[in-house]
Structure formats: C-alpha cells, structure tokens
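pinging the channel bc i need a second pair of eyes. not urgent but kinda urgent?? the chain im working w is below, pasted from the shared doc
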Amino acid sequence: MYLNINAQIISYELVESWSKQEVSQLYSSYSVPESVGQINYAVDGYKVLYYTPDFDGEFVICSGAIYLPANINCSPPVLSWQHGTIANSYYAPSNVGNTDNDLIGVICASNGYIVTMSDFIGLGEGEGMHNYVHADTEATATIDIIKYGKDLATEILGVTPNNQLFLFGYSQGGHATMAAVKEIEANFLDELVITASAPMAGPYDMSESQRLMLESGDAYPNPGYLPYVLFAYDKIYNLYDNINDVLKSPYSNTLLDMYDGTYSMWSINNTMIDIGEEDFNISANSFSPINIFNEDYYQEYLANENHPFKLALIDNDVYNFIPSAPMRLLHCSGDDNVTYNNAEVAYNYFLENGAQNIELIDGGNFDHQECASIAIIGAKVWFDTMANLCEPNVNISEKDINKKLVRNIDLLGRSIISKSSTKNFISIFNDGTTQKIVQH
C-alpha cells in the first residue's frame, strides 16, 4: 500500500507470513533453544519505505522491515533490532523472507513483540551510498522506523503498542544501538522511553580502541571494513580531494565501486587480499587493511592528531553520555573484529560518570562470529524478564494450571544444572513466565 507522499512512511507491503508451525520449524532448523521465547502468534513481515534525514539534514528514502504478531489482542512492546555490517543490499532486513534478520524478527514477534529493523541509509532500497558506522544517521534511521512502526502497527493491528521499548544490535548494530539510545535520551524522551538496551560487540570507541586495533598492522578477518569507513566518511566529512592520494593503485580504482550495494563483504575482502598477493607480495594470512594506503598519506595520518580521518572517528564515538535506562553490554573477550576494549571503555566511562543499572558481560573467548548467537540470545532472554508480554486467548482446559519450573538458564541463555554454582540466573516456567534470581 502506498501512502501520501507527505507522510513519513512512503509505503508498506506485506511480504511474508509465518504460521505458528512455521515459527516452530525455525526454532528446529536453527537449533534455537526454547528459552528464547514462547511461540504465541503467527507473524506477518512487512517491508517499509520511509523518509529519514541524511547527514546534511536533507530527507532521503530509507528502507526497513517491521514484524507484527498476527491477531494479537493486547498492547505489545516494541523491540528494535539493529543489524551488523552488510555490504550487499540483498542481505538488508527489508528483503523480508530471505535473510538471517528474519530469524530475529519472526521469533521475537511470535513471542509478542512488535519488531522494527532499519536497513540504515544507503542499504536495501534506500538512496545513495551507505553511511557506514555514522552515529547520527544510524540513530535517526532507527528512531524513525520505531516511531513509524508504532503508528503502522496501530493501523494494521488495531491495537496501540504499550510504552515499553527495547533496543539491541550486534557489531555495527551495537554501535547503532548505542547511538540510538544516546539520541533518544537526549532529544526524544517526550516520544520514546527506553525500557532497556543491549548494545553488543560494537565499535563504540571508534577514535581509539577500534582505530588502534586496525593500526596494529596485524592480519584482520574483514579488511573490507576499513575502506567502508573511509568511503562513507569521505561522503560525509570530505576527507580527501583525490582517492589516488590516499590509496595505492589498483585499490584506488577498484574498491570504491564495490560498495555500491551489489557486492558481498566476502567478495570485497577477497578482492583486497588477491590484489595484495598479486601486486604487493603480501600473503593472505598476514594481510592488514592498512596495506591499502599510500605510505605518505598513512604517515601523515599517524603523525597528525587533527587529521580529518581521526576527527571523523572522534565524531562517531558513541559512549560519551550517561545512559539513564538499564543497559547490558554483551561482548566476547576473544573478539577478533571489534576489540573487547570498546565495551570496557564504554562501561568504565558510564560508571565513572555516575550511570546506574549498567552491566558488562563477557561472553567468553569466542571470536566475533561465534559470539553473535550467544550475545543475541542473552539479550533477548534478559528483555523477556522485563517485557509486558501477553499470551493469546486459550481455554483454561488447554493450559496446565499448575505452574511448573521448566529450566534455569544463565544470563546468556545457557541451561544450568547447579543453582549453587551460579549467583544470578533466570527461571523459566511452563506458562511462559520468567523470574530473575539473585543469590547473595
């Protein structure tokens, strides 16, 4: 359906629906533990196009996805998911029914949440090049789809969402989540009140922790992240006049075109490594993204504290505020893409400046990819302990009226056997309710 061009939502389209049985099949296919949430509703997945301000304040078209619990008869909370790094628009959330984002959207909506997901500017069907890890536009694109999603849900479902709002995201999505929390608490408290947030494995400290990780010269699993930042920030901050002054050839005439939304990060990474092996005799297992820079440019960058690239990184640090809503930072200390120090810097800053209800949880010695499911499940289970969710109407005979304990899980969603060895855990009961236990 297309709306008036003056509306903030340009269009919405029901793309895919999942029955409760199909939701159950997703649990089985992806080995999702039952503790992640009860299957209460069928789910409808919508692609939306909406206007949001770009870095220069001009409104541009942005795309995203909204997942709604079908035939819900109560006021549901809103859950905002921020996706990780994507170079190919095919994998953006708005391609409903075809990406890994569906798993999060469908499961959470089936539990009883309204789920919103922005592609962010420049991905999916959005305009222009993606503003990669640009805090301001990540925040506004996220906030706008939350607001418009609530309106859309009211129109389609005929119920008004309740006042609860949860935000979580992983990797770039962790950065976007932190940026959105910062912006909401600074400028949108009259419209949105955050119940809790869970930024996960995000580069919150772009100007130091993440910068130093890349400057180390060590081999890096995703070298394509660095030129992604460079090209996006040049679009926004005008970092250079001529790309040939910045990058070595053939990187200077090869890489930029690969960020047009049609190449995967895998393709970009391998192109960079292949050029390094062929043109500069750099082995694949030692390739560092700093190998793409012209030496003169790179040395000037290192020596100049006011270098335009460094100033742009500072402008996209997102931890320099005091969260008022509960926040749980989830990160694995073995992360090989986004250094764990990002989470420590943010956490320490929050505590030193008087923030309350802030936690930092180390998921363990897992790399960036391995940590994702651990962190996401942990965040979702934590949200469930606070969310005002309702179950669909059932006959009393269909339900076990005797409340029984199903299992105990730790704060990352993993089953535990001995309660005596775990101070904090969550009990899950057969009626779908949960209880957080704190042992002293």
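so The chain has three domains: 9-205+319-384, 215-315, 397-438. and The CA atoms of residues 74 and 309 lie 49 Å apart. — does that match what u expected or am i reading it wrong
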